[in-house]
Amino acid sequence: MRALFPTALAYFLILTAAVQAGAQEATVKYGAGFAIEQRQGYKVLTVKSPWPGSSSGFTYVLYRRGQPRPSSLKADGFFETPIRKVITFSTTYIPPIVALGEADSIVGVDSGGYVNSPEVRTRIAQGKTLETTKNWAPNLELMISLTPDAVFTYGMGNQWDTHPKMAEAGLPVVICGDWNESDPLARAEWIEFFAAFYDKEDRAIAYFNRTAKEYERLRVLATSAKSRPAVLVMAPSRHLDSLRRQELHGPPHR
């Protein structure tokens, strides 16, 4: 577990070294699926494992708004920061964006019915955040009209992927691999990935350290628990009624 002051100090030293040496990889302690390099005048984000079994990743270059775009680099996307408008194609991206204080930047979501964030639900009700899917497919015309600075989405590496069509339409796609992380803190650390697009790394690190501290407290508490019930974790679906019946009456076959 990282304490706030040592982490903040280390992060400051990393940034200082980046300016002096021209390239230095920022510390990502738990998350194995991404890396951040602070270079002189820009950042390089690498998504190492976008989906299980992927043979390659994705690279994104982030540079300050108003500054010239780095021309000597090859990347899957170039983004001016801080970004102002985003579309999210998974509700899991919304909590870190809200935690960064950027709920108002979310102009589109894939399906509003699955959004739990009060801030974003209010925006949906006010017509400020729109649903950007139609018949389970991206509504490309609507997405283009929203002029997002980034579209956060994911890939599966199969024929069901929708991100190639988004990219083909000229949308600024960012493939996220947070769902591949097996460690809870590794998953939580992806807030630093999103923060890089908003130039809010300091806020993300402070937020993550509070999360890690609370997680460690609960982990120790759970370790000392005498009762260890089995827990089933799953997404809401039509199968919940069936599971509820099994809970009351037992499974059909034992």
Give a nutshell description of this structure.
The protein is of the alpha/beta class and 254 residues long. The protein has helices at residues 4-21, 94-99, 118-125, 140-145, 163-168, 184-188, 191-198, 201-223, 240-249; strands at 23-25, 34-39, 42-47, 58-64, 77-81, 86-88, 106-109, 130-131, 133-134, 137-138, 150-153, 173-175. Strand 2 and strand 3 (42-47) form a beta hairpin.
Features:
254 residues, globular, Rossmann fold, single chain, 35% helix, disordered C terminus, alpha/beta
CATH superfamily: Nitrogenase molybdenum iron protein domain
What is the strand arrangement across the widest sheet?
1-2-3-4-5
CATH class: Alpha Beta
Strand content: 15-25%
Rg calc: 20 Å
Total strands: the figure is 12
Helix/strand order, N-terminal first: HEEEEEEHEHEEEHEHEHHHH
The CA-CA distance between the termini, in Å, is 42 Å
- Please identify the structural class as seen in this structure: alpha/beta
Q: What ranges have pLDDT less than 50 throughout 5 or more consecutive residues? A: 1-25, 237-254
The mean pLDDT is 83
C-alpha geometry? globular
Helix percent reads 25-40%
Using the 3D structure, state the CATH architecture: 3-Layer(aba) Sandwich
Counting structural domains, the number is 1
List the helices and strands and how they pair.
Elements: H1 4-21, E1 23-25, E2 34-39, E3 42-47, E4 58-64, E5 77-81, E6 86-88, H2 94-99, E7 106-109, H3 118-125, E8 130-131, E9 133-134, E10 137-138, H4 140-145, E11 150-153, H5 163-168, E12 173-175, H6 184-188, H7 191-198, H8 201-223, H9 240-249
Parallel strand pairs: 4-5, 6-7, 6-11, 7-8, 11-12
Antiparallel strand pairs: 1-2, 2-3, 3-4, 9-10
Helix pairs in contact: 1-8, 7-8
